[in-house]
Amino acid sequence: MADALPYTDADPTVTELLATHPNLKMDGVCGLMMDGVSLTAIANAVGTPTWVISADTLRTRMARLKNAMQAAGLDVSLHYAVKANDHLAILSLLGKEGFGADIVSGGELARALKAGIAANKIVFSGVGKSDAELQEAIAHGVGQINVESAEELDIIAAIAQKLGRTATITLRINPDVDAKTHAKITTGLAANKFGIPYEEAASLYARASTLPGINAVGFATHIGSQILSVAPYRAAYARMAELVQSVRSQGLSVSVMDCGGGLGISYRTEVEGQPEALAGAMKAELGHLGLKLAIEPGRWPIGPAGVLLGQVILNKARGAEAPFYVLDTAMNDLLRPSMYDAWHGIVPLSAQDAATPAIPAHVVGPVCESGDTFARDRLLPPLQRGARVAILDTGAYGAVMSSTYNSRPMAAEVLIDNGTWHSIRPRQKRDALWHTETVPAHLTAGNT
Ligand SMILES: Cc1ncc(COP(=O)(O)O)c(C=O)c1O
Ligand SMILES: N[C@@H](CCCC[NH3+])C(=O)O
């Protein structure tokens, strides 16, 4: 991993994008294929917008993370960050492979348990856990709760005692390290809401070690997301190592270090974060301490496993200006471009379209917001009404961040596993948009 963000201004071509996405191939006849399955065939069968996830990609990337840790000689448990993509099929797949889960809410706890992930393989993170969520987690016997504040520690101790249980905890420490990522997804700076201030960590750990209802086993840190450089990880882990040593010198026992998630992927021309480099940083800074380590990857394993299929509703020409390609998918489906100005590759499904010389265009959705823009001045072939595209790297923080804004139903979801595709969520029906809403009797139609 390079230590400077390796962005360039030049956008990758379709050929370059396909070269960095081994699960995608352009077939001269069938068009864009994922794991040997025609994405056009899927769009024909279920319509658009549709999320498509490659199970093989997810398995391969989780295996690479695991192997990287093992090759470094580290004892590391992998807890997939459920927030990245919480579909039951995904969690079931990961549960079957023996992975644990990192959760941040009662909803994610329920999903992970429903998918068959054992409670003792679940880590409960999250800056604000309600009493009800903590009770549920402790009653189910989750493996570890990452405590975010002194206040929360006392709340957990009280709930555990009331339930007659002992809660195994780590303290999540804010190491005040800049992860050099987007400001909205950096979490390890003192100004961020996450974690316990580094300076308070040792004394709070000493207190936690004496609290009834609490089994304090160590520390956790998570400095942000889409991290491309290894340097911030090393800086954070070095600080955590110092903390472990200082706490141990007080005679306290520390056996666990949860190293968080955050490894970044290549959306545009970035060099993606390398699991082997992450393992190297963990080994260099923490390897000598005899700790049981954990990581919580979300984006890295599943981001590149997914695409979002959309169709051009209109090619809105504007004379000499770049045209607007208005898709049938929008910011209510994929929020990342509107929220973070995120860059996602856009590839036509038709080989013929993909081979046509590109012109600059703006790719937008139909939602009534100018921010509903997937790409500005993107070099793309002229795309006519009805042309279909795949928006790349949408497996993480895609479907999970969707809404029904503008009364747009939730998109369909498909999983490709071992060369066969499965519908894993039908497109939401129109009347499901309001099926939980009630209208007071005096407002119903016909009432004057
Ligand atoms: C505590 C915690 N762990 C893990 C993750 C997963 O991060 P990522 O998807 O970047 O790997 C997050 C999200 O940033 C998080 O807040
Ligand atoms: N939602 C963010 C990542 C947040 C990570 C969770 N702490 C994204 O799409 O990049």
UniProtKB/TrEMBL annotation:
Catalytic activity: meso-2,6-diaminopimelate + H(+) = L-lysine + CO2
Modified residues (N6-(pyridoxal phosphate)lysine): K83
SUPFAM superfamilies, per database record: Alanine racemase C-terminal domain-like (SSF50621), PLP-binding barrel (SSF51419)
Cofactors named for this entry: pyridoxal 5'-phosphate
Enzyme class name: lyase
GO-annotated biological processes: lysine biosynthetic process via diaminopimelate
Domain called Orn/DAP/Arg decarboxylase 2 N-terminal: residue spans: 58-300
Keyword Protease among UniProt keywords: no
A Pfam family it matches: Orn_Arg_deC_N
PROSITE patterns recorded: ODR_DC_2_1 (PS00878), ODR_DC_2_2 (PS00879)
Function: Specifically catalyzes the decarboxylation of meso-diaminopimelate (meso-DAP) to L-lysine.
Protein name from the UniProt record: Diaminopimelate decarboxylase
Gene encoding the protein: lysA
